[in-house]
Specification:
Elements lengths: L5 H38 L4 H26 L3 H18 L6 E5 L6 H8 L12 H9 L4 E9 L3 E8 L2 E7 L2 E6 L4 E3 L11 E3 L3 H14 L1 H4 L2 E7 L3 E6 L4 E3 L5 H15 L6 E5 L7 E4 L1 H15 L1
Parallel strand pairs: 1-3, 4-7, 7-8, 10-11
Antiparallel strand pairs: 2-3, 4-5, 5-6, 8-9, 9-10, 11-12
Length: 308
């Protein structure tokens, strides 16, 4: 049986002690590291960790905001936005949202080229850049247009509904004739022969006051049908020129009563068919007739014959 010496025994025992020492040292190091980590965590305030996480999440947004601020300060952001918008509109037009038809209803006198110019569009124009409200305002600024409705009907139709003005009279001003409506709006000065039956208004402000007069003449057709021209005197009252050359001087007020009086006298006595040059109605309840020089001479001659 082999014998174990004391030296061999002592060596084995030392190795076991050394192994246990290493384990203990490793445990102490782990404990110290854990304590240091715990101390670091305790050193930070409670709000620090959530704030740190939020900052990490917001960092891309902050970077983007900083970039946009730099681009804006450099003056490039509006240009970039404009290019992006132009690209989007161009893409929609290429996809089919472009003007293919302009449909106009209610147009009789308004020039077609003027309508298109007011709309500001043509075939192929992007629908999304068309402004119906601006087009409506531009159309209603045209002389013949009293009202306009403008619609954008996708994918490619612009619809326009016009209400045109109604001519009321011819207006003579500074040796020139114009066509005007009931609001005194000048419609045109061309091809006026198309309205031969309209009365003529004369005077600087005649179109503004003509509606009332023409309404009163319409109510007395026995007189109104014979009026060829109406002259506004002093901006206050009217003189009428009839188809036989007789002038009718109306009062500043109570025009309706004066015209009714003249119509009654004409119906009973045919005063307007006599050899007269004027009828003065400016004095209330009185009708003054001015005869012609020839009629006056004939009357004097008749009186002389009676005396013989």
């Amino acid at each position: 049986m082999p014998r174990v010496s004391a030296a061999a025994y002592d060596t084995g025992r030392g190795s076991a002690d050394s192994h246990r020492a290493k384990i203990a040292a490793a445990a102490r190091r782990a404990t110290m590291q854990a304590a240091r980590r715990a101390n670091r965590r305790r050193a930070l305030p409670r709000w620090a960790l959530p704030s740190l996480r939020a900052g990490l999440k917001l960092s891309p947004v902050l970077l983007l905001a900083g970039f946009l601020a730099w681009v804006w300060a450099d003056g490039r952001l509006p240009e970039m936005a404009g290019k992006a918008s132009e690209g989007f509109v161009r893409t929609t037009a290429e996809a089919g949202l472009a003007v293919t038809e302009v449909l106009v209803k209610g147009r009789a006198e308004t020039d077609g080229a003027a309508v298109l110019a007011a709309l500001g569009v043509g075939t192929g124009s992007p629908m999304l850049t068309f402004d119906p409200h601006a087009a409506q305002a531009a159309l209603q600024a045209l002389p013949w247009v009293a009202a306009a409705t403008v619609e954008r009907r996708l994918p490619g139709t612009i619809f326009v509904q016009l209400v045109e003005r109604t001519p009321m009279a011819l207006w003579q001003h500074e040796q020139k004739l114009y066509l005007v409506d009931a609001d005194g709006v000048v419609l045109t000065d061309e091809r006026l022969e198309r309205w031969p039956d309209l009365p003529m208004l004369v005077g600087a402000d005649a179109p503004k006051h003509g509606r009332e007069l023409l309404a009163l003449l319409s109510a007395e057709p026995l007189i109104g049908a014979r009026v060829e021209a109406a002259v506004l005197v002093g901006g206050r009252r009217w003189d009428l020129r009839l188809d036989n050359g007789v002038d009718v001087r109306l009062p500043e007020k109570e025009m309706a009563a004066a015209l009714r009086q003249l119509a009654t006298v004409q119906q009973t006595n045919r005063v307007l068919e006599r050899d007269i040059v004027a009828v003065d109605l400016r004095v209330p309840d009185r009708l003054v007739v001015q005869t012609s020089a020839q009629a006056a001479e004939q009357r004097r001659e008749a009186q002389r014959q009676k005396k013989i």
